[in-house]
Amino acid sequence: MQSLHYVESQKVQVNKNFDPIFKDCDLIIHGQTYKPFDFLKITRASPDGVNGAGIIKENQELLKIAYQTLKFEQNLVTTGGNKRGFVKSKNTLTKEAIKALKDAWHKIYSDPSENNVVILNNGLEFQEASSTSVEMQLNENKVTTNNSIFDVFGVPQNFNYETFIKTAVMPVITAIECALNKDLLLEKEKKSFYFAFDTKEITKGDIKTRFEAYKTALDANIMQIDEVRYMEDLEPLGLSFIKLGLQDVLFNPETKEVYTPNTGQTATIKENIGGDG
């Protein structure tokens, strides 16, 4: 019995040869050795066809900035948006007074849901710290970071569906197709067979664009009416005519008959078009 199973990349050990031209390797999983053709290897930016460079590894700094931005926003939410600052005192505070002030300040920042207040005794004054450039430009930085992440994944910033399919989805589909053709076909089979996904459904686009494409295909005799209806999940009409021109001459390839609706005449095309002469 043969079947396909997913194996996590972390559990696969690659034992490569040292030939820089004719690259080869063995795959070792739990001590058992496999050949490369035993696996479908769908890799990204791979120098050897086995090991790939992931998006996280290639964009560590960008993703780190996005993560730190989220942490910064979390801190703002946790503290209720309270500004940082410092307390000025005209007199020297005792250790007990400093501890009581710190405890009160910690409470107001750690639990913003409560109506906590800090009472400053005579001689104490709170001075709010000025906003940093990062705080002042937080929204602008978020937009820039988000757009950069969109670019990494091939997602258009305006999220146009057609562009999204071409730039984000199709590269992944193509990589899977290449892996299927490489590992599941014999060399002699590759001359006649290939694997390909049926992407008609996801590449149809909006109805206006789709029907304009159908009209072009029908006018050029690339497609027939029933073929278009099939792609739209409609019942066939049983029309097997091919238009020859003037939009009113119909040819039936099965009976070799030409029908002209304007005149009501039917003619048969002879097998030997040139006749005897």
Overall average residue pLDDT: 78
The H-and-E topology, N to C, reads as EEEHHEHEHHHHHEEEE
The helix/strand class is alpha+beta
Strand content: 5-15%
What would the principal axes of the Cα set say about the shape? elongated
Order of strands, main sheet, comes to 6-7-8-9
Rg (C-alpha, Å): 35 Å
Secondary structure: number of strands: 9
**How far from one another are the termini?**
65 Å
Tell me about the largest β-sheet.
4 strands, antiparallel
How many helical elements?
A: 8
What is the structure about, briefly put?
By secondary structure, this protein is α+β, with helices and mostly antiparallel strands. Helices cover 36% and strands 14% of the residues.
Task: Describe this structure as you would to a colleague.
By secondary structure, the chain is of the alpha+beta class. It contains eight helices and nine strands. It has helices at residues 55-58, 60-78, 95-110, 133-136, 138-152, 161-183, 207-219, 225-231, and strands spanning 13-16, 25-29, 32-34, 85-89, 124-128, 242-245, 249-252, 257-260, 265-268. A four-stranded antiparallel sheet has the order 6-7-8-9, with no helix packed on it. Strand 1 and strand 2 (25-29) form a beta hairpin. Helix 2 runs antiparallel to helix 5. The protein is elongated. The two termini are 65 Å apart. The model has no long low-confidence stretch (mean pLDDT 78).
